[in-house]
């Protein structure tokens, strides 16, 4: 069987490595330049590759093509692959065909990385033999090739789910839905939502689907879809007979027996993280992890870098790095969790943002807005009659300097940009790292 892998990053190289290890004929092709350490990896493992162009004839002669999630669905080459009827899969689809491990797969518009990491922490902390992959950590395919895990916890994006055929997790989890990446889904919110729901499409009645009962779009879609897996809801708004919910100041999970713990004992900040903790606890209970172990994990978990990450406190001012908040919904959660007057650093590449969603929160929680981007006009125009203190900056150094001058003892400086990072930074990680560096400068 001839395997062609498109894309020479973490997932592509992992998929090529797994194919090679399984004795399949494999060729990797990347339209851009491949990073040196990945090139080194391909050469060390005797995997044939090309970069900065696609040998179309060779690509289209494949029996099975594995596509990296970063390649747009509308790319010319993808159109040609579909025309020829060649099987096209994501790395998670490909790798899942070579393992009998139980897969816990997590998707959603916000909170995926945190919840995936939290579930991994719960399993690892209980002594289970577990791997972490998908959109996070090391390539799932490479782990399947080299490591014999009994469980995999995978963060899964809509782009990866677009390219599945048989992918069937033991537990699938859909955290929430909000308008994101709509440019890849014909600006159709329902089309994007349906892509997320594909996480459950191959599940059978011996599998589990955890979903958010409070999420409006999920409710709408569930009326139209038939899901075979056992459905278990969570809610922060209503008490449930089965699933996860809040009762007074506690999270409660009812599956067979009952698990509960005080919300203020959770290591994660914010209402949205209460929902994430409920979802993760349900997964733990399905896997029959005992209550004490789940409680210990929820108390000891460290927040994911760049997601409501407390950097430091200087002169009574708390600095929080939420650089991973690249859409309005993510920034909403961050602002909602702020307890102190907040200097808010926002801006970057706008993805068609509608700031009315956070208008009320900004009025109530934010004392000053510091815009950070090449073009801050849209944000300035939207908030100029709603907030007196609005500043425009075009470097992280300037943004942090102004924020420090505005913040008083007891305040919080929050980087939660609402936007993509590519105008001034290499990535959201780079943006968060630069924020931390500038904050910690004397």
Automatic annotation (TrEMBL):
InterPro entries per record = Mur-like_cat_sf, Mur_ligase_C, Mur_ligase_C_dom_sf, Mur_ligase_cen, MurD
Main localization category: cytoplasm
Q: What is the lineage of its organism?
A: Bacteria, Pseudomonadati, Bacteroidota, Flavobacteriia, Flavobacteriales
Domain (Mur ligase central) spans 106-283
Q: Which UniProt keywords apply?
A: ATP-binding, Cell cycle, Cell division, Cell shape, Cell wall biogenesis/degradation, Cytoplasm, Ligase, Nucleotide-binding, Peptidoglycan synthesis
Q: What does this protein do?
A: Cell wall formation. Catalyzes the addition of glutamate to the nucleotide precursor UDP-N-acetylmuramoyl-L-alanine (UMA).
Recorded hits in NCBIfam families, A to Z, give: murD
Which domain of life, per UniProt?
Bacteria
Pathway-wise, it operates in: Cell wall biogenesis; peptidoglycan biosynthesis
Q: What is this protein called?
A: UDP-N-acetylmuramoylalanine--D-glutamate ligase
Q: Where does ATP bind?
A: 108-114
One MF term in GO for this entry?
A: ATP binding
Give the GO biological process terms: cell division; cell wall organization; peptidoglycan biosynthetic process; regulation of cell shape
What reaction does this enzyme carry out catalytically? Answer: UDP-N-acetyl-alpha-D-muramoyl-L-alanine + D-glutamate + ATP = UDP-N-acetyl-alpha-D-muramoyl-L-alanyl-D-glutamate + ADP + phosphate + H(+)
As recorded in UniProt, its EC number(s) are 6.3.2.9
Homology family = Belongs to the MurCDEF family.
Q: Which positions fall inside the Mur ligase C-terminal domain?
A: 306-418
List, alphabetically, the GO terms of the cellular component aspect. cytoplasm
Q: Does the keyword Hydrolase apply?
A: no
> Could you tell me which species this protein originates from?
Chryseobacterium muglaense
Cell location: Cytoplasm
PANTHER family, alphabetically?
A: UDP-N-ACETYLMURAMOYLALANINE--D-GLUTAMATE LIGASE (PTHR43692:SF1)
């Amino acid at each position: 069987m001839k395997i062609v892998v498109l894309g020479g990053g973490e997932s592509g190289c992992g998929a090529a490595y797994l194919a090679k290890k399984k004795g399949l004929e494999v060729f990797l092709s990347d339209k851009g330049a491949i990073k040196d350490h990945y090139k080194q990896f391909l050469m060390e493992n005797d995997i044939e590759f090309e970069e900065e162009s696609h040998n179309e004839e060779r690509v289209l002669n494949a029996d099975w093509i594995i596509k990296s999630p970063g390649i747009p669905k509308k790319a010319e080459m993808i159109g040609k692959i579909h025309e020829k009827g060649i099987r096209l899969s994501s790395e998670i689809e490909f790798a899942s065909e070579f393992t009998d491990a139980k897969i816990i797969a997590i998707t959603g518009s916000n909170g995926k990385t945190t919840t995936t990491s939290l579930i991994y922490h719960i399993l690892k902390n209980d002594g289970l033999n577990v791997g972490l992959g998908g959109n996070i950590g090391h390539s799932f395919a490479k782990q399947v090739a080299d490591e014999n895990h009994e469980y995999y916890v995978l963060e899964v994006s809509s782009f990866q789910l677009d390219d599945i055929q048989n992918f069937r997790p033991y537990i699938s989890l859909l955290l929430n839905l909000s308008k994101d990446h709509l440019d890849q889904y014909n600006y159709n919110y329902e089309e994007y939502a349906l892509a997320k729901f594909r996480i459950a499409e191959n599940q059978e009645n011996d599998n589990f689907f955890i979903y958010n009962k409070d999420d409006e779009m999920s409710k709408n879609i569930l009326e139209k879809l038939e899901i075979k897996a056992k459905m278990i809801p969570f809610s922060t708004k209503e008490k449930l007979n089965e699933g996860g919910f809040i009762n007074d100041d506690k999270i409660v999970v009812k599956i067979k027996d009952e698990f509960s713990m005080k919300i203020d004992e959770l290591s994660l900040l914010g209402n949205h993280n209460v929902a994430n903790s409920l979802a993760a606890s349900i997964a733990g209970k399905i896997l029959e992890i005992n209550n004490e172990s789940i409680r210990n994990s929820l108390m000891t978990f460290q927040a994911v870098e760049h997601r409501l990450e407390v950097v430091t406190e200087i002169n009574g001012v708390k600095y929080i790095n939420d650089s991973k908040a690249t859409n309005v919904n993510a920034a909403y959660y961050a602002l909602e969790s702020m307890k102190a007057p907040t200097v808010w650093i926002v801006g970057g590449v706008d993805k068609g943002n509608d700031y009315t969603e956070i208008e009320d929160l900004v009025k109530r929680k934010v004392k000053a807005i510091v815009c950070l981007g090449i073009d801050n006009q849209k944000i300035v125009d939207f908030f100029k009659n709603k907030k007196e203190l609005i500043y425009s900056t075009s470097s992280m150094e300037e943004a942090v300097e102004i924020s420090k001058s505005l913040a008083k003892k007891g305040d919080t400086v929050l980087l939660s940009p609402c936007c993509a990072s590519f105008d001034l930074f290499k990535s959201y990680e780079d943006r968060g790292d630069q924020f931390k560096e500038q904050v910690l400068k004397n």
